[in-house]
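Deliverable D4.2, example record:
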Amino acid sequence: MSIASNDFVHLHTHSEFSLLDGLGRIPDLVDEAGVQGFDSLAITDHGALHGAVAFYQAAKAKDLKPIIGVETYVARRSMTDKEGKADAQPFHLILLATDAVGYGNLCRLVTDAHLDGYYYKPRIDREHLAKYSEGLVGLSACLNGEVARALEVEDWDLARTLAGEYGDIFGKDRFFLELQDHGMAEQRRLNEQLLRLAPEVGLPLVVTNDLHYVYRKQAAAHDVLLCVGTGNNLDTPGRMKFESDGFYLKSAAEMEALFPEQREALLNTRRIAEMCDLTLPLGQLRIPHFPVPEGETVESWLRKECERGLTWRYGSVTSELQTRLEYELGVILSMGYAGYFLIVADFIRFAREQGIQTTCRGSAPGSIVTYTLGITPVDPIAYGLPFERFLNPDRVTMPDIDVDFQDDRRDEVIAYVSRKYGQDHVAQIITFGTMLARAAIRDVGRVLGHSYGDVDRIAKAVPNQLGIRLDEALQISPALREQVEADEGVKKVIEFARQLEGVARNAS
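Output generated by the structure prediction step:
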């Protein structure tokens, strides 16, 4: 009997958030999984969970079961050892969260890998993994997995020991040895060894495909992306390169054709997917508790602080001012945001008391509440600023108060809120730089070996317009069209740049 689409699940998947190593845009991954007839899909980016929430939301929107995981790096010695080249080459290991406990442990391991284990890569070790293995399923990963590396040098005793240790960490029914076939001789040799090892150590096998892009036709563009990430050109001798075009989202039939004798290992993907039942409680307010005087609530205290601020700001309180304040407070209190305004006002007060330069920008100055609390120095009444642009009762979204602090003292404010509310209630937010049209041309042009002058000429033919896409640029820029039509080399640059533009390039 053939394997059906809902019998197989891709469990080893890299999105564009495996920065400069993955070309799988999350919407494309989810859409293609649906086209292929899959009902579940995992995300396992390198070392981080950057795309986890976006993937979860996209998958849910398409009635696809999201499985959240990571391809973590395991230190060769301890995660605290950071010496020489040996510690710079960690092993790979796939971790999949089965539930909320597992997701919490996954977050803990990823965090510790970055804060405590980082040495070229964010690393953990087996000892640390054992502390946080509850709710996780482990897969032995690719040719860079620890068991695979032992088998590469025919060290069977070490391979058995390592497989046994991982089996003890996860439980023998929750650690799987991965079979992969991307047309590489090394993988086929490893598969034969794993088929021998598995019954010796009592561990199950699972078939995976190491996805780094969505469609087979993206293999060449992915190769260009790898060169961007490693600083190489396509013709750089000995550069990092994938040896086949098979790292895409294959159908269940294609996977079965690769492993016709491994029905159980194919079906184990479904078994693992059924272990995973993670629900992320998104869209819930998690505002830290703001301490208020005894007998007060955050709602009553916000009102008192605003009424004091009204007198402080205006002196004489008119009915117009009181009406505006009551209206804004009604909206804020009904939405449950009282604590948020008090928290922001508190750390701005701290900054000003410490002589740390600060200002508030965006739409928040349109609120008399932010003015009376001292968050903004701008009088919304004097300037006729609308409150609804900041917080609209018909559009229930968290208010966004944009506050800037002088950059050489920002850490003092972060330390203050960490002390007051606890470090587990304070986080910094990552942002991702993406390959915009001109930047994509410059990256691709370099990789293809074009001179700086040639690449600069192509890039400058793209109109200097915010957010412009290359398709649009080709329509409105005669200079760009002429270069593409006259020169096959330029045409190739644009073709690759179109495939890479918009992909996450770096984090900050």
